[in-house]
Amino acid sequence: MASFTTTCTACTATDVTVFLEITQVPVHCNVLWPTNKEAMNAPRGDIRLGFCRLCGHVMNLAFDPSLMEYTQAYENSLHFSPSFQRFAEELVKGLITRHNLRNKDIVDIGCGKGDFLKLICSRGQNRGWGFDPSYVPPAGEDTAGVTFIQEFYSEQHAAYKADLIACRHVLEHIQFPLPFMQRVRRSVGDRFATGIYFEVPNVLYTLRDLGIWDIIHEHCSYFSAPSLTHVFSTAGFDVSSVGEMFGGQYLGIEAHASRSPRGKALDTSVAAIGSLVGAFANNYDEKTSFWYEQFSTMKKEGKKVVVWGGGSKGVTFLNKFNNVSGVEYMIDINPRKQGMFVPGTGQTIVGPESLKFINPDVVIVMNPLYKKEIEQQLQGLGLKSTILAG
Questions:
Q1: CA 140 from chain center: how many Å?
Q2: In the chain, fewer beta carbons within 10 Å around the N or the C end?
Q3: What is the pLDDT of residues 167-195, one digit of tens each?
Q4: 387 pairs with which residues across the strands?
């Protein structure tokens, strides 16, 4: 196990309080496995959440970077969901309007499978460069004006002079976000008109709304509005906005390079976050106890149960209740996940059409934002399963 630190990984303050520990969870929730045996033997790591009372950052103090490897096996695309597609369309529309992104140049750091970059380039007739070692070129697909580079973004790529630098759901995977943002600032140089858009999971959704299934080893940084704006302003960016999106599950921040060594931050408060942290351990225990009881009751009643959602939420959920759930299948609409196996627990991942043969009594939906579209799919399949939100 990696050695622990009591220093904040965002601001280097030493007023860090540990408030939750979880042991031996899968290192990667978004790396699925081709066989049950490999899935059951997936690498594991620990979680030790600490809270910084100075900047409001939450971090995994037990994070072990030596266990992390982002390859083409990493699969976290959400763009197969109609609900997520609507969110992505609105996001792109807003960015194009606010930053006048028509016939412009876009850089996407950590572009994944390229869905966002292709969308913003298509809608604004823009040119794009995506950086990600996990990118897999789709067979037979050619997106005009978009180039993918299977590398981590670094200062050596500063020659790609963008009108917008975007980075979505990458910063939470970086143990020390300030040096990373300082490298981004150096790559921007004196291009003060370049827009910056970053998006990360919102730690308030975890603490306030008890989205506890988002607590995963590969997320070593959990950002609040105060900690996110602190990192950006310290790195030399003037922050123009930061706010919740996607039902409060995400934080989006927009900024520009500052002409001063330290940029302008927004007025945000850490006090409310501290109160939520203080109550979180008990709330976590109450929610997990509730689900232990639910699974116990469903097993006594002979209910056939499936979990819908093959991302981090579903993987975390199944690993937490592996000994009691009795779940044999995970459902996911992403065809790249179907036929694979869940890390740590080994359930087979199948598509929604398989539900006609499984005929479950209960479908546990891991993201409540997808509940309505899942209800519609179940109705289309002629199923009357009970739907529970995880």
A1: 28
A2: N
A3: 999 999 999 999 999 999 999 999 999 99
A4: 363
Q: What is the pLDDT of residues 135-156, one digit of tens each?
A: 877 765 667 789 999 988 888 8
Is 62 contained in some domain? no
Residue among 202, 164, 200, 203 nearest 184 (CA): 164
241 and 114, same structural domain? yes
Task: Tell me the C-alpha distance between 163 and 173, whole Å.
Answer: 25
* Structural domain contains residue 335: yes
User: For 236-316, where are the E strands, in sequence order?
Assistant: 237-245, 250-257, 305-308
41: in domain: no
What does the block give as tokens for 335? Answer: 């065809």
Q: Where are the beta strands (DSSP E) in 1-117?
A: 16-26, 44-52, 58-60, 105-109
Question: Which stretches in the chain have pLDDT values below 50?
Answer: 1-3, 72
CATH of residue 162's domain is: 3.40.50.150
- Cβ(93)–Cβ(112) under 8 Å? no
State if pTM tops 0.70.
Answer: yes
DSSP state of 124: H
281-318 per-position pLDDT tens digit: 999 999 999 999 999 999 999 999 999 998 899 999 99
Residue 371 forms part of a structural domain: yes
- Cα(344)–Cα(326) distance, integer angstroms: 14
Q: Containing domain of residue 337, as a range?
A: 298-389
Residues in Cβ contact with 124 at an 8 Å cutoff, skipping those fewer than 6 apart: 92, 96, 101, 102, 103, 104
